[in-house]
Design a protein that fits this description.
The protein is built from 16 helices and 14 strands. The protein is an alpha/beta fold. It has 2 domains: 2-142, Nucleotidyltransferase, domain 5 (2-Layer Sandwich); 192-380, 2-Layer Sandwich (Nucleotidyltransferase, domain 5), CATH 3.30.420. Strand 9 and strand 10 (208-214) form a beta hairpin. The longest helix has 25 residues, at 290-314.
């Protein structure tokens, strides 16, 4: 089956082309709407680029498909079986990948207030494909869908219940496609069925989230109504005392929009030590920079707290999984997160295995550790392709 996976952002479109679940090529169009756009197609053997203005998402997709043909990746869009779209917010309306209809489009539009930066861009990609090729099946894979198995005790906030009933204020969680993918990979590494494993998955990138997975199903996750809650991130604060917001509104010259910008774009690692690049944070910390050291300690301490909380929530865990750009590549972060866990929960990291650089999925626990510790390379695009295939196969 031939599947094009699209991730449409506000000023960019990224895609991967899969044939029978194998990635054949990746492509992207950046700086949509700016004076000088940029496009690139890479099939591993050669790279084709384009520069020039790209007015909107429709033009961007036309250019992207043309470049895929010019690179001999595909002969025509008519050969595609479907397009799979990453959609950030599906609220509580979608717990499965869904064939896109006009009703689904309207539902995605209804959730724009919950994801004002993401859902409009996701819709732009969907609408552009519908305009260019109206008969091509499209499937929405929602970042929030995997977490719809959380019980009310986990997804509700202790606020007046009318806010949930009337305004949909609840925990939704994000990075669901990544958490779902690495959970399946962990089950294979454990030689167990997915519905028999308890896991804590840590997706650590510029955005970061933790998920408690019980018998293959998400029962709690660190991100909430929005992707701001939870772990300390590159530029996002994660968990804070909510009273900080009215305190600043009443006692500083910050407007509520300024506070929102600060929490999302000027906090986290960047807020403490001036950079959201974990590689720079580690490098500066190892040179003795106090603020970088503090940022690293805060970042790893907060992850450790979630591991402890989710271990209690799950009752027992088979494995902890590190994934995402930081989780997969930052050995120092993994070591600091796991320091002391051999005493508290019995998880023993093997320092030598942890230091080894590899792009393969691997175990980094000691042989006698009762809890397994895995580094798993996430592949959200492949997961989207697999889920898209499953929907198309049942039409």
């Amino acid at each position: 089956m031939k599947i094009l996976v699209l991730n449409s952002g506000s000023s960019s479109i990224k895609c991967q082309y899969f044939v029978d679940q194998k990635s054949i090529a990746s492509a992207m169009i950046e700086r949509i709407g700016e004076s000088e756009g940029y496009g690139e197609v890479d099939d591993g053997a050669c790279r084709l680029t384009h520069t020039g203005p790209v007015a909107d998402h429709r033009q961007a997709l036309t250019l992207l498909l043309s470049m895929l043909k010019d690179a001999n990746v595909m002969t025509s869009i008519d050969e595609l079986d479907a397009v799979g779209h990453r959609v950030v917010h599906g609220g509580d309306a979608f717990d499965q990948p869904t064939l896109i209809t006009q009703e689904v489009i309207q539902s995605i539009r209804n959730f724009i207030p919950l994801a004002p930066l993401h859902n409009p861009a996701n819709l732009d990609g969907i609408e552009a494909i519908r305009t260019l090729h109206p008969d091509l099946p499209q499937v929405a894979i929602f970042d929030t869908a995997f977490h719809q198995t959380m019980p009310p005790s986990a997804y509700l906030y202790p606020l007046p219940y009318t806010l949930y009933r009337e305004n949909n204020v609840r925990r939704y969680g994000f990075h669901g496609t990544s958490h779902a993918y690495v959970a399946k990979q962990a089950a294979v590494m454990l030689s167990k069925p997915l519905d028999e494993v308890n896991l804590i998955t840590l997706h650590l990138g510029n955005g970061a989230s933790a998920t408690a997975i019980q018998k293959g199903r998400s029962i709690d996750t660190s991100m909430g109504l929005t992707p701001l809650e939870g772990l300390m991130m590159g530029t996002r604060s994660g968990d804070i005392d909510p009273a900080i917001i009215p305190f600043l509104a009443h006692n500083s010259d910050m407007h509520i929009d300024d506070i929102d910008t600060m929490l999302n774009k000027e906090s986290g690692l960047k807020g403490i030590c001036g950079t959201n690049d974990m590689r720079e944070v580690i490098e500066q910390a190892e040179k003795g920079d106090e603020m970088s050291t503090l940022a690293l300690e805060m970042y790893t301490y907060r992850i450790k707290k979630y591991i402890g909380a989710y271990t209690v929530a799950l009752g027992y865990i088979d494995a902890v999984i590190f994934t995402g750009g930081i989780g997969e590549h930052a050995a120092k972060v993994r070591a600091m997160v796991c320091a002391g866990l051999e005493v508290s929960i019995g998880l023993e990291i093997d320092s030598e295995k942890n230091r080894l650089k590899s792009s393969s999925n691997r175990a980094i626990h000691k042989e006698d550790s009762p809890i397994r510790l895995f580094v798993i390379q996430t592949d959200e695009e492949l997961e989207i392709a697999l889920q898209t295939e499953a929907v198309i196969a049942t039409r």
